[in-house]
Design goal:
By secondary structure, the chain is of the alpha+beta class. 35% of the residues lie in helices and 26% in strands. Helix 1 runs antiparallel to helix 2 and helix 6 packs parallel to helix 7.
Amino acid sequence: MLPTLMINTKDLDRVRRLVRTAALEELMSRFESVSAEFKTDGSLITAADLAMQHRLQTELARQWPQYVLLGEEMDAAEQESLLASPGAGLWCLDPLDGTGNFAAGIPFFAVSLAMICDGAVQAGVVYDPCRDECFSALRGQGAWLNGRPLMAANTPERLRDAMAMVDLKRLPEPLIRAVAKKAPYRSQRSFGSVALDWCWIAGGRCQVYLHGGQKLWDYAAGQLVMSESGAAGGLLGEYDGDWLTEFSLSPRIAVAATHADLLQQWRTWITQGLVS
């Protein structure tokens, strides 16, 4: 087995350029003429998803042959095998996060690529080709937006003053009713790209976040960007549980906020909302 080689700042810059070029050529060239099909799980897939995954799998293997790639558009058995035996390191790719938006002509989607090594996400890149915004992070070294340091913004102290990103579709019915009856925040949005959700929390564009079920390729890169920016949050198996750290292909609950005090207020309200 080849020795583990950690991704460094020079490598990260190469990855950012690779992802950006591929997204502009494979995604944006197809954005105005999209033909989508339904997968067995009911989600959409387009030619752009497949082309982007193939492009990055080929180019990453050429530049970093010691690492393998786990992509969203692989079958479940192959994904499980790769996650169980990642070798020297594992790229985790969502080639088109926000396929529903892409297929509908809504300009809000991204490419999400993470490097998992030594039991943790070591690097992440989330690229939004519509805005030419590239969010990236290295574990323990910080987060960046288009190469400039990304720090958690000075945001409201009180939950009632915050803007939320909440995906209602995947929440339990009691929590949906609680949100509909008396939302605890100032305003609410749902944009349709999990990877960008994490990054927008990191940048303070919204201040609290809740999503009831996202997969490893959805959150791996974006969560690292968020945590390295200084924002707070993580993944849960149950709404009132502790943070989860082990990798899995099972859907995870995501809860986040731009700072720890706001996160505590948000989690308290969520727990109460489940029984209200």
